[in-house]
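Dear Dr. K.,

Following up on our conversation at the group meeting, I've run the structure prediction for Sulfurtransferase TusA family protein from Corallococcus llansteffanensis. I'm pasting the input sequence below exactly as I used it, so you can double-check it against your construct before we proceed with anything downstream. Let me know if the numbering doesn't match what you have in your notebook.
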Amino acid sequence: MEAGVRVDTSGALCPVPILEIAKAMRRLAPGTLVELVSTDRGLEADLPAWCEATGNVLVRLERQGAHYVGWVRKAG
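The predicted structure tokens came back this morning:
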């Protein structure tokens, strides 16, 4: 999946992955696809909850080896 922006938070624990994607989203146009990469397994619960709370769209979330990768489309 081709994302407009990639945010790699590998090695960081909660709440850093969500803080970093939130920061990235603030400067993007609506409809932009963001790829979030994390090694924190908490992302499986945190990213869907954050998307629901913010109105952004969780396109996909999957595990790739030791990494969790989520694709989120900015609302608007």
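Two things stood out to me. Strands lie at 5-8, 33-38, 57-64, 67-73. DSSP finds two helices and four strands in the chain.

Best regards,
J.T.
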